[in-house]
Amino acid sequence: xxxxxxxxxxxxxxGDVARCSDEEGVALERxxxxxxxxxxxxxxxxxxxxxxxNLLRNPxxxxxxxxxxxxxxxxxxxxxxxxxxxxxxxxVTAQEIAGALHTVAQGAKYLSNARAESREKFMAx
Length: 125
Known about the structure:
Layout lengths: L1 H20 L6 H14 L7 H9 L6 H18 L2 H7 L3 H17 L4 H10 L1
Helix pairs in contact: 1-2, 1-4, 2-7, 4-6, 6-7
């Protein structure tokens, strides 16, 4: 049952990420922040927030078969949101950009006490 709940939460988060990152007529920065918030911000400020990352990555929980592909799907979705023009301008691959943004946003969420605060940190980054 626990695995089913984790699977549902991962699928819900990835669906929210897809909706945010694919939103037509929205600037890249806003789509990226919304996608980061959908993936990382959903539990900021809640009681289990500080422990969720450790729980999902704990080898004893045996969730890597679900979590690792979900993380890869998130990074791929974030990378796909960036146009070729954005990537050329920055001189890096979309995957490098997505990976860096994901890593930085993970740190920002642990420095926040509320979801709105984490979104502000994502915007400032």
